[in-house]
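User: Quick sanity check before I run a bigger batch. Here is a single chain. Can you write out its predicted 3D structure?
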Amino acid sequence: MSEVKDLENKTLSQAEPVLPDTAEKAVPTSQGVKGKWKNMPRQKRRRMIRRIIALVVVLAVVVGLIKVFGGKKTDDTQIVTDTVQYGSITSTVEGNGLTKAKKSETITLTTAGTVTDVMVTEGQKVTAGTPLFTVDSEAARTAVQKARKDVEGYEKQLNTLQKDIAGLNLAAGYPGKLMDVVTLNPGDTINKGDKVATLSDDTRLRLEQYYSYAYAGDIKVGQTVQVSIPSLMSTIPGTVEAVHMVSRITPEGSKLFSAEIVVKNEGALTADMAASATVTVNGETFARTLTVLPKDFGTVEVEPEPASTEAANTEFRNNIWPLYEQPVREKLWAGAFLCPAENYMTLVDFGQVKVTGGQQGSRSNSTRLYTIPGEPCRAPAGGVVVFAGNLALTGNTVVIDHGCGVRSYLYGLQELSVTRGQTVERGQAVGVLGEELTMDFKLGSKSVNPWPLFQTSGGLFWKENG
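Assistant: Done. Predicted structure follows.
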């Protein structure tokens, strides 16, 4: 303040020189500053007051900044000197404090983990994108895998729903004959699963016939037979496609096995038409009457399947194929079979031709279901577990022998609940379902359509023709 007062005195003396004609009016020295202030013109006093107030404000601001940002004085602080000037009044101000970055950001982790690499040090200058640390997080990987599975599950549901939407515009999937057409009118309400027509592909038909065990080994796959149609007085060549060594007992006590015969049909055969298959064995010719059924399963769009390894194929053949030729047990089931999954959506149905990228592939001999993970996988019927284990090709697998050559093959389980040799009852949990279940029901080595087994009140049964 002494510097300010000296500067004020100097300013006043320079601003008001004493004129010769007013020397006698000068204020006596004894009056001091007080007397000078009283004798100073009012306008000049106002300017002086404003300057003093401005200086005090500047000093107060500087002191406040030092207190707020200066913090506790440390060895890192630096004394800064600056000059404050307002008009003709100049003052020197000094103080110290800490400087702060204009922009700063705290780097934190979003999940727990273990640091594997440290690539920076304290005080190092970095640029955008410079690697700092590498952190390994098992929890993060698990969360990503779970999210990926959830997304895949939703995508499958979405694909199924899109197929349902596409199915609202009904069209014939292949050339054939329409049968059992329901009369529909605009405005009619229909429900999911309602049958509106049957499209029959009658260009290739399958016939099933039973023969005495006396001819077991004589009727073989690939053998040529003649199918006679009495109503048309014509004969069509056919080929034995499969032989099932089932045990069917006739009322007379004869034991029979079955053979499936496939014929190319140029329009002569129709559904429910009676025909007979003539087979020549060791020079002896015999015929059996049978009923023609249409073979019609449609097509389904599927994603490309990943190629399996030779090791996986060999493991499957060594464990599953021998089951096709196992000795036939007595009948172990009773009543209708049960679908292994209680809640499901059908992805690929039995007999459908799989289409990938517009190209038709093989016909499915199994049924693939989209299931709810964690729900139990149920035994379709009573029987004995003949295989329970994990295979590289099919995952956790359970095979149940129900007797009479009928076996159910359940693939892709999340967990297994049974062991080989265990007896199971209809509906008993044999494992835990994952996202998909593939089920294959076979008579010997030949797959059969499972849905009639589930929907027929009498279960699996044989019916004599005649």
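The longest strand covers residues 234-249.

User: Great, the batch can go ahead then.
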